[in-house]
Specification:
By secondary structure, the protein is mainly alpha-helical. It is built from four helices and no strands.
Length: 129
Amino acid sequence: MIDFLRSRIASIGYAISGWLYVIHTQRNAWIHALATVVVLALSVWLQLDRFEWVLILIAIAFVWTAEFFNTALEVIVDLATKEHHPLAKVSKDVGAAAVLIAALTAALIGILVLGPPLVSRLNGLFGAV
């Protein structure tokens, strides 16, 4: 049992190491981080209900997961070849497309979930917006 717990703790450490690698090496991760903070702050301010929180959290996780897989894919491709191979380019481009799809989907979810209560809240603060 102790060995099992130690291995789980080690696994968490490896995951944190991977997360830090993405944050420190991927410029788009900073955009995702900023968007995450803004969306979470807006969600708190707008007092979303449980279902809306679920949608927002799934959207955030979707983008981060796509970014993490894309980074892993890029690292594997770089490990496999240092030359500019057409298939390496395709692999990296497809990974980037996955992140783009995730980000656009998350943005649409954000607009649909946060848009109406945000407009309502702003109307209450500033009059008709």
